[in-house]
Input
Amino acid sequence: MISPDTLRQKYLDFFKSKNHAVISGKSLIPENDPTVLFTTAGMHPLVPYLLGEAHPAGKRLVNYQKCIRTGDIDEVGDASHLTCFEMLGNWSLGDYFKKESIAYSWEFLVSDKWLALDPKKLSVTVFMGDENAPKDEESAACWRNIGIPEEKIAWLPASDNWWAAGPTGPCGPDTEIFYWVGEGMPPAASNKGNDPDSWMEIWNNVFMEYNRIDAKTLVKLPMQNVDTGMGLERTITILNGKKSVYDTESFKPIIAALEAISGIAYGSDKDKDKDKDLSFRIIADHVRSAVMILGDPKGVVPSNVGAGYVLRRLIRRAMRHGRKLAMEGSFLRKPAEAVIAILSSAYPELEDNSQKIMEELAREEAKFLETLQKGEHEFEKMLPNLLKNPQKIMSGRLAFKLYDTYGFPIELTLELAAENGLSVNREEFDEAFKKHQELSRAGAEQVFKGGLADQSEMTVKYHTTTHLLHKALRMVLGERVEQKGSNINAERLRFDFSHPEPMSPEEIARVEAIVNEQIQRDLPVKMEIMSLEEAKASGAMALFGEKYEDSVKVYSVGDFSKELCGGPHVGHTGILGHFVIKKEQSSSAGVRRIRAVLE
Ligand code: SER
Output
């Protein structure tokens, strides 16, 4: 048995032995990125460096990163998809390229000193080429040189072998490594291309030498980068000879906690138990994600917008599946404790924030139980009329009303109806539901799609302006002001900060005047790399709760502000324009939000 802790350490040790600097993983909530709610890949926090900014730790990096991908939510419960997973990643920022990257991956996977996987159970895919980029002969040649037989190399199109985190940003062809999950040994001719279900992806090596500017424009980056991501949970599964991620140490204690509470056994493998086992898996996945989001230092709590809404959905979906396992009340505490016990060695913030995690879970459970009670009460009020209906059919319109007005899930309406000898016009409900979804889709797609901070000229200007604003707020409101979140796009900046009360019009005017004064002074913006200690000693502002490397980049704006930051920034403030605060409002308890523009 190899544990997740051991695998993480082995991965870091291996790449350290290849001169990679170990950097820490970042928050699940991206900073300065308006296009995504969560960090979706290990490369996400590294985008500025993949585009050419110098990284303070050098050109060879390795880490592990917690990620959330809600796009996979419908596949959760199969053998390998999760909403929260850990990515083991290594990067070359314009240093080595395909040959070394492929050789490193192979050595780590098959060498007796490292994972000692059977090479016969591995196969790979490479990019077949299209109008954007040529067939990746170079990667294929590297695999052949290593000794991979021709029939274990599948040539696939961009839909499989081109990786981009979003509609714009660094991207490129990739080569992916798969492990055999079929019975026995793989037939000689089997590969991902001709036998897709028998192979599970474990590692993706992306060769990022392109930058997508917009839908029509793809340009070469000034350097050739490597970005690899290995799925920790999947790799643990195959290393331990298991069929599914849920059978590994990453999940077993969570499922055991659910078995103890429900008194129902998991994993009978019988067809009649399929739905029940799926519920176990969905709850285990969702509790784990909820704990990781709640435990993040950036402090998301359940709400009706953004990341808080995703969190709410995960908790509520877990509770709905709990009811399928006869867990009617609150039950999330024990499985959440199991998650913290499993993951806190790698993510100590879970232990530090355990009280908050438990409180928020309990609060959300209570809220949802109240919703359910209200819905049940409304249903009972409708019941006498429904029973008068000779066909004993509840209209889809009424079922939708319960959903739309009270948040009452359709599954529960169906249950209550059945208990009272009624059926529900499901078609009508689905129609109403579809309409409702279409209305909200435009918004939802925006936030679920995944993507990158755009680095347009305006966005960069707003980024520098944010530094000026941060400092000006501390001057006007006091040093207790702390950045709580920043979200920038080409149209505006949005800045959240701790402050107990609304700002007065005079305070707002003073902040604006201070920022505009720095713009008029046309201050130079300079970057220096220094040790974290030096940076702190120099009085540079840092983000509370963010993890930093031992060596960091510090951006200073003249003599005015000094802040730890990845960049990029403008060269001097004179080009920023005129700064105007458009709105100052409450964001959450004790946190204010400013929207501001450059005119
Ligand atoms: N960015 C790639 C992925 O997420 C490799 O790290 O798969």
User: Anything to note?
Assistant: The radius of gyration is 26 Å. Confidence is low (pLDDT under 50) at residues 441-453. The first helix runs from residue 4 to 17. Residues 457-598 form a domain with the Threonyl-tRNA Synthetase; Chain A, domain 2 fold (CATH 3.30.980.10).
